[in-house]
Specification:
The longest helix has 17 residues. The strands form three sheets. This protein has a six-stranded mixed sheet. Helix content is 44%, strand content 18%. The protein is α/β, with parallel strands linked by helices.
């Protein structure tokens, strides 16, 4: 079991090679959640993830013969980049095995770091099986992403830094994938400040730690925006530490994780991937547990696919009523479309798209249909815009 001594040794070992990321108080998120929110910006690491800490701590403790043999790691992305980056710095050969569905951002990020990249299997478990087999055949040292004492000790340095910067903290809310981060942070937090609560957060679709701690059979799966949490089961070492040290594990839905990503972009001007935003999602979904407390959240990763981030932000506009679709039936006379667009502009709406339908699905050939995608300030503004059109005699419907 890694101890506080191991974590403090890891901090000294990796100092200068990983970023000592800032812990900053967020006034906007505090107002939103009712807690005093402190964000630990692990998305500012060189590879945009806390995973560098554990990976480097492990690599620095390899023997000369192990370095000569090289290492292998399986990962959904962030651990892969951490191992690849620091192995390249140290002159160690690194083979990285990733599931075939890994986001392109993380695949590219690993490739450019010089690792020997293999895409194998549909799940992390499939990738792990391939990696272990290859490690045995080629004599490579297997660097596990979360079920390794040296890796866990490295991840625990996040909590050391948090408590140095905010010693009067009440709570840490930590995302759980395989459990390495929360296990390491819990060891450090409970040793230094036994009264600090350590709360884990998982997606409802991948909640192996929650199920294991409750004595339930693990039943997880499905698509998730938080692929960093999409682990089929947690590590045995991490589980043992969490049973002893973690106060509670809460679950969050996919749409809440999306809302957290949007809030971090809009309010904090920072990008977090799904797993990285899960801590904030927990505060948004379970506010009563944290209201009035000083809460630290590690933004544990920022490697989200650009296309996915774009979709999440647009869905956020729709969810908030700031991007709406209006269906309008127009008389087939000159100037009718111009009249409606003028009314929308005068009401403060910004037209994003227009689709003019004269053939398919129209009630009458003499009544063309137009669908507008319009940007508004909020739901109240949308209601006022629709009312202005109706007062002017326009037949309009707000589409879901």
């Amino acid at each position: 079991m890694p101890s506080l001594h191991d974590i403090e040794a890891a901090a000294r070992r990796i100092a200068g090679a990983v970023v000592r990321t800032p812990l900053l108080h967020s006034r906007t998120l505090s107002a939103l959640t009712g807690a005093e929110v402190f964000l630990k910006f692990e998305n500012l690491q060189f590879t945009a993830s806390f995973k560098e800490r554990g990976a480097l701590n492990k690599l620095l403790q390899l023997s000369p013969s192990e370095r000569a043999r090289g290492v292998i790691a399986m990962s959904a992305g962030n651990h892969a980049q951490g191992v690849a980056y620091h192995a390249a710095r140290l002159g160690i050969r690194a083979v990285i095995v990733m599931p075939k569905g890994t986001p392109n951002t993380k695949v590219r990020g690993t490739e450019v770091l010089g690792a020997d990249l293999r895409l194998e299997g549909d799940t992390l478990a499939d990738a792990a099986a391939f990696a272990r087999d290859l490690a045995q055949r080629e004599g490579l040292v297997f660097v596990h992403p979360y079920d390794d004492a040296d890796v866990i000790a490295g991840q625990g340095t996040v909590a050391l830094e948090i408590l140095e910067d905010c010693p009067d903290l009440d709570c840490m809310v930590v995302p759980i994938g395989g459990g390495g981060l929360i296990a390491g942070m819990a060891v450090a937090a409970k040793a230094l400040r036994p009264g600090v609560r350590v709360i884990g957060v998982e997606s409802t679709r991948y909640c192996a730690m929650y199920q294991r701690l409750a004595g339930q059979a693990v039943n997880v799966g499905g698509d998730t925006i938080a692929e960093g949490l999409a682990v089929r089961d947690v590590g045995d070492l991490a589980l043992a530490l969490c049973k002893e040290l973690v106060d509670e594990v809460v679950l969050v839905e996919e749409d809440t994780i999306e809302q957290a990503i949007v809030a971090l972009v809009e309010m904090e001007k920072t990008v977090a991937e799904g797993a990285g935003a899960a801590g904030l999602a927990a505060l948004m979904a379970h506010g009563d547990k944290f209201r009035g407390q000083r809460v630290a959240i590690p933004l544990c990763g920022g490697n989200i696919d650009t296309r996915l981030l774009s979709a999440v932000l647009m869905r956020g506009l729709v969810r908030d009523g700031r991007l709406v679709r209006l269906h309008v039936a127009l008389p087939d006379i000159a100037g009718s479309l111009a009249k409606v667009t003028t009314l929308i502009g005068e009401a403060g709406g910004n037209i994003v798209e227009v689709q003019h339908q004269r053939v398919f699905g129209i009630a009458s050939v003499k009544t063309p249909e137009v669908e507008f995608v319009i940007e508004t300030r909020d739901k109240a503004h949308t209601g006022a815009l629709v009312a202005a059109l109706e007062v002017a005699g326009v037949k309009v419907a707000l589409l879901a």
